[in-house]
Amino acid sequence: MLWKTTEYAGWGGALTATGEIARPERASTLEALLADAPAPAFGNRRSYGDAALNDGGRAIDMTRMDKIIGFDADTGVVEAEAGVTLATLMELFAPRGWVPAVVPGTGFATVGGAIGQDVHGKNHHVDGSFGNHVISIALVSNGKRVTCSPSRNKALFRATLGGIGQTGVILSAKLQMKRTPGTTMQVTETRLADWDEQIDALSTSTATFAVSWIDAQAKGRAMGRGILEEAELADADAPAPAKAKSVPLNLGLFSNGLFARIFNEAYFRRVPADGKVSVKRLEAFFFPLDKVHNINRLYGKGGFHQFQCVVPTGSVDVLEDMMNRVARSGLASPLAVLKRMGEDRAGMMSFPMEGYTLAVDFPNKAKARTLIGTLETMTREADGRLYLAKDSLATGAAIKAMYPEWSDWAAEVAKADPDETMVTDMVRRLELRG
Predict the structure, then answer these.
(1) Looking at 153, 180, 207, which one is the last position of a domain?
(2) In sequence order, what DSSP letters do the residues of 374-388 get, joined into one string?
(3) pLDDT digits over 280-317, tens only?
(4) Is residue 20 a part of any domain in this protein?
(5) Could you tell me the end-to-end alpha-carbon distance of the chain, in angstroms, rounded to an integer?
(6) Residues 6+ apart with CB under 8 A from 108
């Protein structure tokens, strides 16, 4: 296997690594590779920080291991290699009546990455996280091929879900998909005037899929205004697919406060005061930003950080305080969302808890990093949690305090990878295995 020295980064671009990368295409090649030179694996690197980075060491790019192994059209069970993207699963199987049960905001996430971060979507309050729909996982752990599931090697299974790749390299997984009547979504968009309307709307929504965009630049009485999207899977005539666009250069528009305010005003006004109902293609609803390739370049060469937390339902006042601070800072980009989460939590290091999750993008600037530090402290004091798929700035002490099963996870990981061959930059930064 050819190792090639490469400089690479996560989606946020603020943290980078340089090291040798291998790109196997077959399971047999991967297993031989791991027997000779064990190394952590990554997919399309849609995690924002350093979860996929191994600076100065080796790493395995799994994107060429992208085959569908099997599919049962009656039950909706699919077996796929780790490098298969969630957009591919949706594209292949939605016309046959099935979609992935849970998807994040990008279809470029791979099956392996979705397991390693136990991703959640706009339906967590109904369907839980990605890991709640994983039937079994095949991985190479401590030099051996192992299968784990909720009933077989259960501790390893729960340590792998949300376990940021530390139990071994995922080869493939069996997933239970969700029935869909067609390839479209019936979407209702509602303007929300302020923070109180945001929380009331999300808490009372009965939709299967619900997410709220927030104008993170709005202050005063308009603080927290935004647009609630509620949706259901549907069988309707599909609109024509949007033509893909691309950001050719590092433009830095999303790092400009004036641009963000103008963009947010226009985006808020695009929905009429009495609301809007439309039919959207599946990918247009679930992956709206994927139609603009390299959209992360809009933050400029310095990249960006995303702050994403979840706090318990009873701490919603803390989220309001956070949003006030964000709005007063003028630092937030146009990308800010709020969602309601349910109880389900599949893995030992899975992010979700019942409550509300807030995600805000910030340019990689000193003032923004200071603000994010304050928001992280507020999250910890509210008994909330930070999302490892988005984190690039937290401390190990904070993360360990937020994840009650961290010590159990670390013990299981130590058994699965006793020589610490899977350690990444994130694990070192947060001292998660120390």
Answers:
(1) 180
(2) HHHHHHHHTT-EE-T
(3) 999 999 999 999 999 999 999 999 999 999 999 999 99
(4) no
(5) 31
(6) 44, 46, 85, 87, 290
